């Protein structure tokens, strides 16, 4: 693949915007909030009256 940057295994070479995703404690909290919001939205959809 010409034009693509080489893949680096060096942790210092990681994209700074992706470093946040590597924090396990933070990721766990974000996944929990996302799951809770998803379930809440699904419950609201299922509880909505059917249109006629």
Tell me about this structure:
- There is one protein chain.
- The chain has 52 residues and is mainly α.
- The protein has a domain at 16-46.
- Helix content is 54%, strand content 0%.
- The chain is built from 2 helices and no strands.
- It has helices at 16-19, 24-47.
- The longest helix is centred in the C-terminal third of the chain and has 24 residues, at 24-47.
- The protein starts with 15 loop residues before the first helix and ends in a 5-residue tail after the last helix.
Average pLDDT, to the nearest integer?
A: 80
Q: What structural category do the secondary elements indicate?
A: mainly alpha
The dominant shape is elongated
Task: Report how far apart the termini are.
Answer: 54 Å
DSSP helical segment count: 2
How many whole angstroms does the radius of gyration measure? 20 Å
In which range does the helix fraction lie? 40-55%
Number of strands: 0
Low-confidence stretches: none
What's the main sheet like? none
Order of helices and strands: HH
Beta-strand proportion: under 5%
